[in-house]
Amino acid sequence: MNPGPFLGVVFHWLGGLAAGSFYVPYRGVRGWSWETFWLVGGFFSWIAAPWILGLALTQDLVGVLVQTPGRTLFWAWCFGLLWGLGGLTFGLTMRYLGMSLGYGVALGICAACGTLIPPAFKGTLAAIASTAAGRMTLAGIGVCVAGIAVSALAGLSKERELPEREKHAAVKEFNFRKGLAVALFCGIMSACMAFALEAAEPIARLSAAAGTPALWTGLPKLVVVLAGGFTSNAVWCLALNVRHRTGGEYLAGRSPAGEPVPRARNLGLCALAGVTWYFQFFFYTMGETQMGRFGFSSWTLHMASIIIFSTLWGVALKEWRGTSPRTHRLIAAGVAILILSTLVVGYGNYLAAAS
After folding, report:
1. What is the pLDDT of residues 187-235, one digit of tens each?
2. What number is the average pLDDT over the span 146-160?
3. Are 144 and 338 in contact (CB under 8 A)?
4. Which of 108, 125, 129, 280 has its CA 20 to 30 A from that of 164?
5. Treating both helix axes as pointing N-terminal to C-terminal, what angle do 132-161 and 298-316 enclose, rounded to 10 degrees?
6. Number of structural domains found in the chain
7. Could you tell me the residue range of the domain that residue 116 belongs to?
8. What is the Cα–Cα distance from 24 to 296, expressed in whole angstroms?
9. Helix segments in the chain, DSSP class H
10. Is 314 or 224 the better-scoring residue by pLDDT?
């Protein structure tokens, strides 16, 4: 299959839409603590959806995994586990900073680390920069970082302008210092997903050899990588269940205060959130197959798309209400620059495919 970089950009936009939207259903969960709804949603994200879609869309999924060398499985799972630490703190980032500011800070760090470190580690960054197509792609990554910086500046401007009452009206547990510390850790650890997908590449090749269409060959990688993410998240959430004595929430029909808990509704919302989350990497792996020899740039496209859509969700949920026209201009500028960056990266990949 010949690369189609601009189709890849569209797939990454769809993945960004899924990633920027998944947390919205969690806002409707009632009577469950964070650790309970995060683990329930995570089961659908990291176990159920990868296996169901992997079995449905790829050839001989189990046989491919059995043939995969143990070293490949271990490193894919291990990097997934490290990424999972970033994933669980991402939920805390949303909890303390809200969708707009939280996404901007965490994903800004994640974009820079996850895009540039893999080719630098492999020693291919200089070779990439030596070609016109490579320089165009790297320029697009630079534009993306600039757009993320503007988006984060908009979030900082919002934090300075809004009184505490307004901040907590939009984000009930708003805490800038705590949220910033969590976001920094989240961004660094979340970049391990880029390393995990790179380590799992032999699984994709085995899946292609088994007859899986090129567009779906990334799905078996997700079965292993996301199992690592589930491991770290499950250990942490279950530990919190024990510490906070919230383990009974999974089956309880009433809260400690005696109020009814809508278990079926909560389960449905968590399933919706979890499957929506999974679709970010479902489309990511599809987009990655279209990017040609500069596939490393997929991570930038993914991060840019997430911030675009999460910012728009933040506006829709009125997290920016009460801010100044200057802050609104920063929001618009950040989104515009990020959209431009995805087009520049896509054009760089197009030049590479055409050369």
Report:
1. 778 778 878 988 999 999 999 999 999 889 999 999 999 999 999 999 9
2. 77
3. yes
4. 108
5. 30
6. 1
7. 5-354
8. 29
9. 5-21, 34-43, 49-57, 61-67, 70-122, 125-129, 132-161, 164-170, 176-190, 192-199, 201-209, 219-244, 263-288, 298-316, 325-354
10. 224
